[in-house]
Protein 1
Amino acid sequence: MATEHSAGTQAHGGAAHSDVFPPFDTNHFSSQLVWLALTFGALYLLMSRIALPRVAAILEDRQATISGDLDHSVAMQKQAQDAVVACEDLLANARARAQALAEATHLKLAEEAVETRKSLEHSLKESLEAADVRIAAAKARAMHNVEEIAAEAAAAIVQQLTGQAPDAASIASAIAAGHTA
């Protein structure tokens, strides 16, 4: 006894299988619609009650964080601008004070230079006057010595020429006459 096998496909339970794709089989269409409605309803409830509220909460938190960060950045930008203005004011004040200090120092140094120059001029003037006095005294001594030397030289010349010593009065009168001429 040979058993023959049929070349057909059998579903579980030994029934023969039809040639229609199962989702398109009209015998099972109503049950598939029921399961589609139940699955869609369950998925809708799952999404509307659990997943979408979480996503909405995440989006709201993110939006709040972004808004807070933007507000914070605007506040920080305002503070930075205020700091820049304050810094510029400080720099302007510092420049003005530095300019005033430089001008005051310049005037003070100019006054000190004038005072030093006047002091030096006065000192030099006194030194020149003292030098003029010393020169005049040295000149007077030198002239007095020249007159004595001239008198002695004249006496020696006259004595050499004449052989007799001349009197001091005649030599003094001759020297005095030479000064006036």
Protein 2
Amino acid sequence: MEPLALIAGNGSLPRIVCETAKSRGIPVVAVAFGAKAGQSLEGLADFKIMGIGEAEKVISHFKDAGCKKLCLIGKIEKKLIFENIKLDMRTLKMMGRLIKKDDTTVMLAIIDELESEGFEIVKQTDWLPALMPAAGVLGKIRPSDALKADFEYGMKICRDMASMEIGQTVIVKDGVVLAVEAVEGTDAAIDRGCSLGGSGAVMIKTSRPNQDLRFDIPSVGSETVRRLAKNNAAALVVEAGRVVVVDLPEVISLCDTAGIALVAI
């Protein structure tokens, strides 16, 4: 059977895609961007570790394996753009054509490059189980009216930030924005916001208004909750039906234990 090509970043989602493919009898040929990304694919995919700037090498690898369909999934840190990474000539030409380097512009350029070689970029949701919860309180912790006010305020701010390609996470408390996720990523935004606001902060994660399901579905998971618990946060809020919650039963259990309200709105 024709293998699925997988470009894997960090996190649990590449592993879940591999498990889904395996359950369908479809082999996976993967490229992992870094050793950490590769660890999650052990025993689930035929993978090689390559650099984020090795476009020609990545394309040749998938062509040699006979892949046609390709899935892009997992977290690739935006700060890599500003680090001293090695770029091959193909990557340099692709990046040189870009006027902006926000997430969506870069990812669409990558997709165009892959499609020009005949690959079909599949939706991430085609290879994920139902991981986007519907609206409601998901655990045992019921939010107070004061927290609910922060939910509504924070969600509006978060949607605005996402629409401007700044980030998809905000940290709020008592109607004050403590941190907005930018190039540093979600974990650093949590630490920064909670250090400024102290205990009782709220994290909100949302999607972009026109989320392209071929890349960058926003997600939270158990590590997110552990970081919030370490910082004595009060709540984790996700946009219902548009944010992936990885390992939802474990996330609910961790939130309940830590006294964190888990809510989809």
Protein 3
Amino acid sequence: MVNETLKSIEDRMKSSLKVFRADLATIRTGHATPALVEHIKVEYAGVPTPLNQLAGISAPEAGLLVIQPWDKSSIHNIEKAILKSELGINPSNDGNIIRIAIPPLSEERRQELIKVVHRRVEERRVAIRSLRHDAMNDLRKMEKDKEISQDEHKRAQDQLQKITDVFMAEIEKFGKDKEQELLEV
């Protein structure tokens, strides 16, 4: 029973960490990467659709993204969605493909993005603590219902804290890595 609770929480924390990594990948650095734009929602046939489902996205060089829509009629919607995104980049199209030149970041923009990273790191920490809190409540309920002893409850709490600490360290590491990436010129 306790192991199931801990395994469930660990799986939910892993999932949260995976989402966090994908979220950090969308923060623009000086390098072109398809992750910057692949999750931008584009209005296609009346349905908001992720860009990576409408086009091939590649980064042929460090400062350039190339988007090749599978349906040429969607090119203007894709361009509009990129302009609306908070990336601050300007696409250009030749009727067949969209090119996005990724300009180097100004120092001011780097600092703004670092603040965004810090905010997202803190949001993810709160999410992990919330998951830990839920598990603690489950463990307390098990003890109250006499499903586990006080000793088992204490051991489970210690295990839960160790699991939480591992995920907190991972979040910190990803945040620091992204910060370093933003500081590279």
